Automatic annotation (TrEMBL):
Keyword field: Cell membrane, Copper, Electron transport, Heme, Iron, Membrane, Metal-binding, Oxidoreductase, Respiratory chain, Translocase, Transmembrane, Transmembrane helix, Transport
General function of this protein: Cytochrome c oxidase is the component of the respiratory chain that catalyzes the reduction of oxygen to water. Subunits 1-3 form the functional core of the enzyme complex. CO I is the catalytic subunit of the enzyme. Electrons originating in cytochrome c are transferred via the copper A center of subunit 2 and heme A of subunit 1 to the bimetallic center formed by heme A3 and copper B.
Residue ranges of every copy of the Cytochrome oxidase subunit I profile domain listed in the record: 35-543
Source organism: Lichenicola cladoniae
Family membership noted in the UniProt record: Belongs to the heme-copper respiratory oxidase family.
Originating gene: ctaD
Protein name per the record: Cytochrome c oxidase subunit 1
Lineage of the organism: Bacteria, Pseudomonadati, Pseudomonadota, Alphaproteobacteria, Acetobacterales
Length: 556
């Protein structure tokens, strides 16, 4: 058998042998070993290399954001706010939010796995516009470093939401340069979304019909629609904010005829959909991992695909739930409340279908699957507490308290970050050609789950009891729960640190990865690990259904 037979391994023919390694000489070099210079990386238009560049960048931003989080939790160990001044505390939570949301969570899965895996999943040799893809990374880095510089060196105290009128009139910090960086980063999102949409429309391999696309590709498509349709709104809102602050044009300042609530409308018209930029890709990752580790077809494939598009559409109609208590009519509050409840339907469709896929599957509880199961649990808590908040009377009580903080961390950390780590372990062999150490993987998944819940569950209680967010002075009776939360964050931090070390270690010492270590389905597992420069030795054709694991319908 020639190496290319092994590499090609058409799924339909059931060829599952691992690739024998990188010793054969008659193969194209893989994307990692093609050229080694820094220039060859920074000038590369290969979607895989660009995915890796994003992976390194967002890891860097994550570390900065996590350090700020650690300092926030340190400050909250004592009730009297003695560890940092008010000013420093405000700047710390701004660094944390700005960096985590804009430079980690939003680009995380789409820019890394979306770039690396999506084209391979549809059998393409690259994205539709490879040079534009490289440009997107440069735009991202330029804007992100600009803002990072201003928030770390200069300091900004507005929080990640930059609410007017504080950001326009009252703050004495580096608001304008911070905003400029965020505006620049938005263009990177728009271009990535455009690139992905065109790629999915035009670059699919022969036979890869829409309903043969893996769910991850569907979620990349839905996410790209949000990137394209929602990002321009935040761009304009932030430009107006800059103009208001610099030139007092009177869009948001009532004294000049403006309206500060207008900013909240514009902000959330983007930022609520943006939370689905964070959550949909995570759902995509989970929809790949669960069938692979249950060795079972994804239950209700079409429903899960439609639910992705459904979520991406509905998410544009619920932004008003962020303004229940500050400046909207009762009628619109009721309408936004009802619409927010509707979001639960497609979300539940996904959860039920993952559960049904797991049910009676032959489960393998490897690291990616542990993350996936953790994800499902945390996402359910996050989603259900979203329904609490969408209930007008409850939100009246817990708005701007730690309950909200707990809610969005369950969704965004529990959802996005766990899916990200699950996906990172799942595709690590494909990215690098090396296996990670399984025992350490499981251990860190365990640390993260325990650490996460210890950190954030007490915050639901704190919020319910009335502790407001964004303050670091609090009544002493809240101290115990705060100490618990801070202690949890130490465990959580350890859980994040382990993978940084053992994954780096595995680059050199990890076992060599076969083409398909998980016995998983999908085109990405039919090419060698790491993939050759143009993804496949011979362009694939698709004559199989998605997730064609051995039929177990009889068992469901
Ligand atoms: C699925 C992904 C979700 C994500 C990523 C997410 C994220 C967030 C974030 C970041 C905030 C706080 C924003 C801030 O003030 O800084 C928030 C607040 C809120 N979320 Fe969610 N959420 C999700 C799901 C839901 C769902 C399903 C609902 C309702 C059905 C919901 C309802 C709310 C409400 C009402 C608030 C505002 C609470 C308040 O400030 O009083 N969320 N969410
Ligand atoms: Cu929202």
């Amino acid at each position: 058998m020639s190496p290319s037979d092994l590499v090609l391994g058409r799924v339909s023919e059931g060829v599952r042998e691992p690739h024998p390694g990188r010793t054969t000489i008659d193969r194209e070099p893989d994307y990692l070993h093609d050229e080694h210079t820094l220039r060859s990386w920074l000038g590369s238009t290969d979607h895989k290399r660009i995915g890796i560049l994003y992976l390194l960048s967002i890891t860097f931003f994550f570390i900065i954001g996590a350090c700020a989080a650690g300092l926030i939790r340190l400050s909250l160990v004592v009730p009297n706010g003695q560890i940092f001044s008010n000013d420093t505390y405000n700047k710390l939570f701004t660094i944390h939010g700005v960096v985590m949301v804009w430079f980690f969570l939003i680009p995380s899965i789409p820019a890394t796995f979306g770039n690396f895996i999506m084209p391979i999943m549809i059998g393409a040799k690259d994205v539709a516009f490879p040079r534009l893809n490289r440009t997107s990374w440069y735009i991202f880095m330029t804007g992100a470093f600009f803002t990072l510089f201003t928030v770390v060196v200069g300091g900004v105290d507005t929080g990640w939401t930059f609410y007017a009128p504080f950001s326009t009139t009252f703050s004495n910090t580096w608001v304008v340069p911070a905003l400029i960086g965020v505006i620049v980063v938005g263009f990177s999102s728009i271009l990535t979304g455009l690139n992905f949409i065109v790629t999915i429309h035009t670059m699919r391999a022969p036979g890869m019909t829409w309903f043969r696309m893996p769910i991850f590709v569907w979620t990349m498509y839905a996410t790209s629609l949000i990137f394209l349709l929602a990002t321009p709104v935040i761009t304009i809102a932030l430009i107006l904010l800059v103009m208001e602050r610099a030139f007092h044009i009177g869009v948001f300042d009532p004294a000049l005829g403006g309206d500060p609530v207008l900013f909240e409308h514009l902000f959330w018209f983007y930022s609520h959909p943006a939370v689905y930029i964070m959550v949909l890709p995570g759902m995509g990752v989970i929809s790949e991992i669960v069938p692979a580790f249950a060795q079972k077809k994804l239950f209700g494939y079409r429903f899960v695909a439609y639910a992705s598009i459904g979520l991406a559409s509905l998410t544009f109609f619920v932004w008003g739930h962020h303004m229940f208590v500050n400046g909207e009519s009762e009628t619109s509050a009721v309408v936004f409340s009802v619409l927010s409840f509707a979001v639960a339907v497609p979300s539940a469709v996904k959860v039920y279908n993952w559960t049904a896929t797991i049910y009676k599957g032959s489960l393998k509880l490897d690291t990616p699957m542990l993350y996936a199961m953790g994800y499902i649990g945390l996402f359910v808590v996050g989603g259900l507490t979203g329904l609490f908040l969408a209930t007008l009377a409850v939100d009246e009580h817990v708005h701007d308290t730690y309950f909200v903080v707990a809610h969005f961390h369950y969704i965004m950390v529990g959802g996005t970050a766990l899916a990200f780590l699950g996906g990172l372990h799942y595709w690590w062999p494909k990215f690098t050609g090396r296996m990670y150490p399984e025992a350490l993987g499981r251990l860190s998944a365990f640390f993260i789950f325990i650490g996460f819940n210890t950190t954030f569950f007490p915050q639901f209680l704190l919020g319910y009891l009335g502790m407001p967010r964004r303050y670091h002075n609090y009544p002493p009776e809240f101290q115990l729960l705060n100490i618990l939360s801070s202690a949890g964050s130490v465990v959580l931090a350890l859980g994040y640190l382990f993978p940084m070390f053992y994954l780096t270690w595995s680059l050199r010492y990890g076992k060599r990865a076969p083409a398909n270590p998980w016995n998983a389905k999908g085109l990405e597992w039919t090419t060698s690990s790491p993939p050759p420069k143009h993804n496949f030795e011979t362009p694939p054709t698709v004559d199989f259904e998605p997730y064609d694991y051995i039929a177990r319908e009889d068992r469901v």
